[in-house]
Design goal:
three-stranded antiparallel beta sheet; flat; 133 residues; alpha+beta; 3 strands
Length: 133
């Protein structure tokens, strides 16, 4: 039963009919984690509004587009998740960040800067190879 499969994959705690906002990934029985999904769909207020999207990345972009075009509010428990997706990853309205998301962005940039500096310091100490070796 594909509905039973759908219910077990869309959410660990609820069925798609109880899902307010969601991306459901349907995988064939026995599929490996890296295998392409059988279906990727968007569920809003328990109703599948878009299906056969092909990838989770495309579904996320479409979900953000639906939220914008239908003037929906993010579910309160996912507010910061969607703010990060919208404002940091997709760079939409990126100049208006909540305090929590601004802190996350700053920490992310500091981490990337430190990784970059560690990498460049490593490269400065690695001897160059010569062609005659």
């Amino acid at each position: 039963n594909s509905r039973g499969l759908q219910q077990s994959i869309c959410s660990l705690s609820s069925s798609p009919t109880e899902t307010v906002f969601g991306i459901c990934v349907i995988r064939s029985e026995g599929a490996e984690p890296g295998d392409d999904p059988q279906d990727v769909m968007i569920v809003l207020e328990g109703v599948e509004v878009m299906g056969e999207l092909g990838s989770v990345a495309f579904a996320v972009a479409m979900l953000l587009g639906l939220v914008y075009s239908l003037n929906l509010s993010y579910p309160p428990e996912l507010r910061y998740t969607f703010e990060v997706l919208q404002k940091i990853l997709m760079e939409l309205d990126a100049h208006k960040l909540s305090n929590k998301v601004q802190v996350l962005k700053t920490l992310f940039l500091v981490e990337k800067c430190c990784q970059y500096n560690s990498y460049t310091m490593y490269l400065e100490h690695v001897p160059e190879r010569t062609a005659d070796r």
